[in-house]
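Per reviewer request, we include the raw input and output of the structure prediction for the construct analysed in the revised manuscript.
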Amino acid sequence: MIAYFIQGFALGFPNAAVPGPFQAYLLSQTLKNGWKRSLPIALAPLISDGPIIVLVLLVLSRIPKQALALIQIAGGFFILYLAYGAFKAFRTAAADQPAVPDKNTGRQGIIKGALLNMLNPAPYLFWSMVGGPLLVKGWHAAPDNSVAFLVGFYGTLITGFAALILLFGTVGRINAKLNRVLTGISTIALLLFGIWQLYYGISRLFV
């Protein structure tokens, strides 16, 4: 059981640390609404990954390329929508106007974060190629192994996301100019991730 916990821990850390659309979204939300309101967004994978794991393990033996392409295209459009929201926050900061935090940031942020994950092909690939086989192997040996793997993986993943939110929140409070720069970076990052997902999603439809 300990071995499976360690494997989950080892796989959760890079998934939290490697830059991606979700991390860019965390940055934009934290700079706009502060770390306290944004901290619940770190829990978004707990909502999105459940259906993904069930879909991969019970419904699809192999993820069709066309299905992943369509998911990636939809995700690209959604990321561009998030980029537009980040741009509006950047424009407000550029005009030296105080950003108005959303009162429902926690609930709406979790929903948007979960939707962002579900429209990203990366979790499907991870659970079909890496996480899924380990989960099934551990379950066949003893159900406790699968539980230990999930605890290790999501414990590290969520802790990593929470640490990023705290880091972004602390850095963003240093001064207004730095906050504006970081907001612009998050906007550009979301824009590039959205364009990348659209490009590769559309190209995979014709491969």
